[in-house]
Amino acid sequence: QVHLVESGGGLVQPGGSLRLSCAASGKIFSIYIMGWYRQAPGKQRELVADISNDGVTNYGDSVKGRFTVSRDNAKNTAYLQMNSLRPEDTAVYYCSADLMTDSRRADIYWGQGTQVTVSS
After folding, report:
1. What is the pLDDT of residue 7?
2. Are the C-beta atoms of 112 and 23 separated by less than 8 Å?
3. Which residue in 28, 24, 17, 41 sits closest to 90, CA to CA?
4. Minimal CB count within 10 Å: which of 29, 38, 56, 96?
5. Residue 95 in contact with residue 78, Cβ under 8 Å?
6. pLDDT, tens digit, for every residue of 58-93?
7. Residue range 33-43: mean pLDDT, rounded
8. In whole angstroms, what is the distance from residue 120 CA to residue 107 CA?
9. In angstroms, rounded to a whole number, what is the distance separating the alpha carbons of residues 68 and 57?
10. Are 99 and 29 in contact (CB under 8 A)?
């Protein structure tokens, strides 16, 4: 079994910052890509940012220059530093991991999501 647990969400004022964490645990052989997605009410889930195991990053257009994704491979943990937050960033943020388990099965796993609300 593999589990992803997000933390760090909450309520923040416009212009503020939050840092999300995603810790993967279980029978993991290797994690290739860790990603952050978000889904606002009535909208489709969209990519926020992802990062490969060798540090290559990819960002959604709406967050470029404001958000930074990083990871600690030794801890199987990814982070999302969110600065200059806007009300339109309000959403449930989900972590994903494209990984191979100890039994050499490749699959994509998801966390349960963490709410981020940007409001004054």
Report:
1. 95
2. no
3. 41
4. 56
5. yes
6. 999 999 999 999 999 999 999 999 999 999 999 999
7. 97
8. 39
9. 9
10. yes
